[in-house]
Amino acid sequence: MTNEKSDFSRFGKAFQENLVQLMLMDRVFCDQIKEVMDIQFLELKYLQAFVQRIFDYKDKYKVHPSYETMTSIVRNTLEDENEALQKQVRDYFARIYTKEVDGADYVKETSLDFCKKQKLKEAMLKSVKLLQTASFDEISKTINDALKLGMSNDIGYDFLVDFEKRFEVKSRNPVTTGWDEMDHLCKGGLGRGELGVVVAPTGAGKSMVLVHLGTEALKHGKTVVHYTLELSDTVVASRYDSCYTQFAIRELHQYKDQIFEMIKDMPGRLIVKEYPTKTATTNSIRLHIEKLKMRGIDPDMIIVDYGDLLRPISSQKEKRNELETIYEELRGIAAETNCPVWTASQTNRSGLNAEVITMESISEAFNKCFVADLIFSVSRTVEDKTINGGRIFIAKNRNGPDGLVYPISMDTSNVSIKMLPSTGETPNDIVTKSVKEQEENLKNKYKKYKRKSKTENQDV
User: Do 219 and 150 belong together in one domain?
Assistant: First the structure.
C-alpha cells in the first residue's frame, strides 16, 4: 500500500493558493469544505493562518467574511504571528484581491474529493477499533456520518449568513460596444452573463452590427467566438478584416499583405465557427465551447448570428415557443460561461421600412425579449441606405435608461458603424414627422399634378 501524504503538498503551491482564494470568494463552497477540511492539509503556514482567520470569523459572527472585512482581519489579527508569516499573509491577500482563479471547478472538485476521502479513512480506522466493542449500528453510523460530510449544502441565499455579500461591489466587467453613447447608457457595455439582442429586418445589417461588436472586443484584447448560421466562416472573417482595417470588402484581395500586417498584432483572438442553418442547437454551442476550453481557449464574448436560426433541442407545437426556449438557453450559456452573449433577431413585416423599430416588431416570439438584458433595434429605410444612415432604438436596458433613439452612420462597404449623438426625438416624434413628410409629399405631388393638368387644358 502506497503511503500518500495526507495534505495538499502533491497538488502544488498554486493549487493551494487558489483553493484558499475560492474559500474566501464562495461562501457555499467554504461551508461545504469546512466540514471535511483540516487546516493541516495545507502545507503552507501562511495559508493555514489565512484560513484559520476565515473559520474563526464564521464561527464567531455566523456570517461569511467579505474581501473588505478580510482586509481588516489581516491588518489587526496577526500580532501573535512572527513578522515573516505576517508579511506572507499580507502579500498573499494583496495578490488575490483582484486576481481571478483559473480552473476553479477543478480545484473545488479535487480538494473536496481529497478531504472527504481523508474523513472516510479516519472513520474506517475508528471502525476497526470499534469492531470488538461496539454494535453494528454504531459502526454503521460512524461510516455514514463520514460519508455525509462535505456534501453540497447550498440551500440558496441566506439572508443573515450571506449578509456581507449584499454590500460587495458587483463587477460586471462589461465589454465595450465601441459606441460611447451606448456604453454610457448600459454602464460600459454588455457584462458577464448578460444577453444582448440586435433586432433588425432582413437586409438592414444585423450581421454587420454583430461583426462591429466583435471587432471592438478584439481591439480590447478579448477572445471572441463567433457562430455563424447563415454566412460562411470565410465571409464572416472577411467582414472582420474590413471592419478592423477599414479596407472595403470588395478591395480586400488587393490589400492582402497590408491586412495581414495589421491583424497579426491584433490584441484579441477570433474563432469563427460555421454551422449550416437550423442544424446546430444550443447544446452544439456548449460542446464547442468545452472543446475550446480543453485547448486553452476561454471565450470573453460569444456571438450567435443569429438565434432565430438555431434548431430547438426539443420540438414544440408552435414556433414562438421554440424561439422563446432558444433565447432562454442562450441566456443560460451566458451565465454558464460567465461572458456576454450577443445575438440577433428578425423583425416581422412591419419592420421592413419602419422609421423606428420597437419590440412590437420582433418576429414570432415576443417572449424572447423577457430574458435579454439589452435589446436595441437597427432601422434603415430605403432612403437611409442611399445616404448610409439609419437609427438605433434602445428597446430594453436592464442597466440604464431605454426608449431612446440615436441616428447612426452605417457604411456596409467596410463595416463602419458609428452611433451619433441623440437628437432628442422619441419614436412617436419620428413616426409623426414621417407621416407629416409623407402627407406633405402627397400634397406637393397633387399640386404639381393640378398645375400640369391646368397647363395642358390651356394648351388645348
Answer: no
